[in-house]
Amino acid sequence: MKDLAVIASVGAAGRRYLVALPPGKAVLWCYLLWYLSTAVHHFDPSPGLWLNALGLSVLIGIALTLSVGGSLRFSANRWQTFRLFLTPFCVSSFSALIKGKGFFLIVPPSLVEFLHSAAICVGFLMLLTLLKS
Fold first, then answer.
1. Residue range 31-54: mean pLDDT, rounded
2. Three-state SS at 6
3. Cα angle for residues 87, 91, 96 (degrees, 5° grid)
4. Which of 1, 9, 23, 81 has the smallest C-beta neighbourhood within 10 Å, fewest atoms?
5. Mean pLDDT throughout 100-110?
6. 56: Cβ–Cβ under 8 A, 6 or more apart, which residues?
7. Integer CA distances (angstroms), 96 to 6, 40, 67, 77, in order
8. Phi-psi map region of 92: left, alpha, beta (phi>0 left; psi -120 to 50 alpha)
9. φ, ψ for residue 107 (rounded to 5)?
10. What pLDDT is attached to residue 35?
């Protein structure tokens, strides 16, 4: 019984988050969904790829945090700081995963893969629209 109450409260919090989500952050979520779809389709278990992405994430994340006036000790906006580190990780790993695979910018050469990634993003945006109506 307790587990269902926890799930319900998490679900309610998630719904409130999605209803209040501004368009700019919805776009960021679509970027993340596209990245995850591509990472699933082209996953490479090579530790070097992921360690390089992590290293770049740390270096660039620190620079971005400092550039927006943040402190390296503690940030009042933890989600923004998280995104400042996550973005370079995703960009560098995405770049390594798709290298030499025929992508045009971020668009995969496979129509099926493109439709899969696009459907995930469109589905997310439709969910937002339904929740906000």
1. 96
2. helix
3. 150
4. 1
5. 95
6. 88, 89, 92
7. 39, 13, 26, 30
8. alpha
9. -90, 120
10. 97
